[in-house]
Amino acid sequence: EVQLVESGGGLVQPGGSLTLNCTPSGITVHELAIGWFRQAPGKNREAVSCIATSQGAPYYADSVRGRFTIARDIAEHTVYLQMDRLTVEDTAVYYCAALKPALCTANDAMYDFWGQGTQVTVSS
User: Please, what is the average pLDDT of the chain?
Assistant: First the structure.
């Protein structure tokens, strides 16, 4: 059984940084596309970023490109989402999701496995 464990959410001031972690169990990271999604209150879930072994450059939503960085640590079986220059508009529950085969997509319906979500709050 594949499970995804997220960590790293919290409260941060505007302009600050947070790093989210996603660690799959039951399958290795390089077999999966790992995506990060977020859902703010009253809004639809949206794709934030995705990384996959079989693809070149990671995917980033326009709203986070240049501020967020996704990376994969094969040895630690973890995918990181480094979030810099956070704004109040980044406040949401962030979800890690996995898809096999490893092909990134922004369509959340395509993902097979989901983490429990971690709250990110950007507030002064």
Answer: 93
pLDDT at 124: 95
- Using one digit for the tens of pLDDT, what is the confidence trace for 36-46? 999 999 999 99
Q: Name the token pair of 35.
A: 């995506």
Tell me which residue of 102, 101, 87, 100 sits closest to 38, measured CA to CA.
87
**Beta carbons within 10 angstroms of residue 116's beta carbon:** 11
Give Cα 46 to chain centroid, integer Å. 11
- Per-residue buried b or exposed e for 53-77, using 16+ beta carbons within 10 Å of the residue's own CB: beeeebbbbeebeeebbbebeeeee
Alpha carbon distance 105, 25 (integer Å): 21
CA 71/CA 79 separation, integer angstroms = 6
Residues 6+ apart with CB under 8 A from 19: 8, 80, 81, 82, 83
Beta pairing partners, 23: 5
